[in-house]
Each structure stands twice: as structure tokens, then as C-alpha cells.
């Protein structure tokens, strides 16, 4: 099992697959297509849905800084993604990167995590899409039939409209990625126009008094808000899943990843500033915050346009997430870790047909039956986990030697453990109780007691101190070691500093997510490991 856990897929073999087109996917995408895919996936749930929830319940007007902090964490991770995407221009995203650096079992874990991220992500956004469908039609005096939004069958409430959206977009994706990217590009142009309209049309209605207090939930509210809205940034890593279908991946992938992320971060901050300035944070609508904000000031034209933007914008997000997931399954099946059925390519359309259909079916069922509030926490923690793994994988690849390939793996794992404890200690408030699947739990009294300096809890000192001690040695080693595997294509700058900060920033946001999200993630990963032990270990092509 040790050999299986740490056996890595040779980079030369991965590049050979990409060069020989063994998967049968067509290279048709350009830098413009990739940027549109990134913007199409990123701008959507963050602006049109989650801004309202995060501002009202977590950060208040400081949601602007939440987007900044989340954006910084993403940009740092994006530099790591860009290095890997150009080093390994093939389907699979973080799964493939982990397979080449950390080892097979870790690749499985991150691949299984990406299933959580993309499939549940598409379901979450499809549910949010129905809110904007209602707002869009409402602007013209129309209404969505009640049975499409809430069909009651026994004790279950079914969101038929969300499920239908997923089914229709799945059909489009089965036809071809170029056709899908053209549709996405058109939708992106429309929603960018709407977002810019929101910013400029909303400025006259901004009341600076609504930004006071700026930190109604304290400084920690910034990071809690960042953890909640991090779901809004999952689009940029979707760009890397299409690497095997890019004409010039070494040049176009970094452009597409980084450009889409920077543009969207700036737009997120601007929109959140306008909305919290127009409406007191406590009164922001959680379902359709932008449309409701303009409706509250009587601007019906803006309300109609925003309804259109949200309707179109969330459509593209669902499209990109549904596009990304089948390519993860495709890559895992091609390596023998999933059933061969997932690696089948349609003879005419040259798309991962089977994987696309199954993804669509699962996402449609979840969109129809699972509440959005339960879904988006799981997507946020899955996304953050993927970013941590990719950042760690860059460190492992840079320092891995043929003589002792596991040394860099163990060093980075120890660093990750130390950083995780450190971030948890800094983020967690031991004086507050928390809920585990609805059951309240409180920390022992002595852990919440202040010591030495007001506000510094005894409970914080334990994980912070232990984490700092564990992280110190591997951190020093990474700064002293010579990098032996620096890519000739795009490279992440300031290694090891940038990947280490990326790991820390994303772990810090993970620490602010609720306990239920953590338990669901752990349960999901354990379930995935059971499947790997049952099927993947025996059928791995690398093992053979």
C-alpha cells in the first residue's frame, strides 16, 4: 500500500498522452475562449446570489474586504494552477497535478473532492438561477408556474426548473465544447454589460451611512464572509480542466486563468460596495440581492436588466461547472482509477459523452431536491481544499529528487499539518458554541478564558503554538533546499513563499466554515477512499 500511496505518474507519460491525443479530445480553444470560460464560471453566484447572504449574515459592508481577501487567496492559488496547467496540459486539473507530484492515493482524494466541487456547485447555482428566473419574468409582469419552483411530492419539495436547466445544458455539452464555448461567450458579454450597468447605475443611490458600522460582525466577519463567498471563485480552476482542448496551452492557459480571476475580483469588490451602499446590510435580500436592491429604490428598468443578467449569468456558471466535472472523471477513468465507461468519447462529437450524462443526472437530482444553503458550504470547503492541494503540489514538484522522491512529500505534508493547526487556532473563537448537525456543542470553560492579554484565549495558544512548532522545520527546509525541477514554461514566482502563503490563506478561510461542512467533507472523502480501495487499487494502469 505504501508503494501505491506514493507512486506518481511520470510527467513524460502525461505529456505523451497530451501530445498524442490519446483521449481523442479536440484542441479548439484559445486564450479568449479560456478567459470567457473563466469569467463565465466566476461571475455568477458570487455577485447574483451569495453577496446578499454573506453581507447580511457574516460580514456586513466589510463584504468588500471579504472579496479582496478571497481574491488574494485565489490569485496565489491561480499562480500555482497556471504553472501546473502549462507543465501538464491535459484533462484532470488538480487531480492530474497531484498524480504527478504527491502520489496516486492523493490524486484520487483530490479527484473525488473535485466531484464534490463541480457537481454540487452546478446544483447550487441551478437553484439560485430559479430565483433570478422569477425576478426576470416579474419585471415583465409574468410569473414562473408554482409547480416548476416547488412541486410537492409527499414530504419532498422538488425544484423542477433547476433540474430542467441542468438537463438542457448537459445536452449542449454533449454536442461539443466549441459549441458550448460560443454559447458561453455570448452569455458572458451580456452579463458583463449588466454587471457594469449595476456598478454605474447604482452609484447615485449609494448612501455612505449604510456602510456604518463597517465591521458589524467584527474583524473575523471579513474572513467568515470570505469563506462563504469563496464559492464564487470556483470558476478559474474550471479553466484548467479544459487544458487538453486548448490549441496553445503553454501560452493560453496562464492568460485565461489569471486574467479571468483579476477581472472578476475587481468587479466583485465594486458591486458589493454599491449594493451595501444602496441597502442597509440587514435588509439585503438573500435570494436576489442586486435586483431587490434596485427594486427598493424604484428603478424598475435596472431591476429588469439585473434579472436578465442574473438569469444569463447563472446559466453560464452551471454550464462551465457541468463541463468541468466529466473531464475529471474522464482523466481518472483513463488512468484506470474509475470505470472505463467514463473514458468513452462520442465518435462524432468527440466529447466525454457518458461522463457528461451521468454528471447531468446527478446534478439535476441534487438541484431538484437539496436546499441551496446545504449545498454551497460543501462546495466552498471542497474548493478551498483543492486549492491547498495544488499549492502544496507545486512545492513537492519543485523539490522532488529522483534519489529520495518521498522526502519532499513528507516535508510538505508536515508543513500543511502545522499550517492547518495554526490557522485553526487563529480563526476559531473558543468562547462560542457550535452546532454539529443541529446539536449544540460548547468548548470547556478554561479554553475560552482570556490570558495575559485581553482577547487571547488559552484555547488559541494550544493549536497556534503546536502548529508553529510543527511548521517551523519544514518551512526552513524549503527555503534552504535547492529547487531541482523548475519548469521551462510558465512558473509560479517566489517559490516557496507564494505556495506557502496560498496554503495558509486558503486553510484560514476553511477554518471559518461550519463544523457540518467539515464533517460532510470528511465523510465524502472516506467514502471515496473506500471506492479507491475496492476498485482503483486493483485497476490502476500505473500499478500494472
Sheet with most strands: 2 strands, antiparallel
β-strand percent reads: under 5%
Secondary-structure class: mainly alpha
Please give the radius of gyration in angstroms: 23 Å
Strand order of the largest sheet: 1-2
Percentage of residues in helical conformation: 55-70%
Categorize the overall geometry. globular
User: What order do the SSEs take from the amino end to the carboxyl end, as H and E?
Assistant: HHHHHHHHEEHHHHHHHHHHEEEEHHH
CATH class assignment of the domain at 32-400: Mainly Alpha
Number of helices: 21
Kindly state the mean pLDDT as a whole number?
Answer: 84
Amino- and carboxy-terminal Cα gap? 14 Å
Q: What low-confidence regions span 5 or more consecutive residues with pLDDT below 50?
A: none
According to CATH, the homologous superfamily of the domain at 32-400 is Amino acid/polyamine transporter I
* Oligomeric state, counting identical vs distinct chains: single chain
CATH topology of the domain at 32-400: Amino acid/polyamine transporter I
Number of strands: 6
CATH second-level architecture of the domain at 32-400:
Up-down Bundle
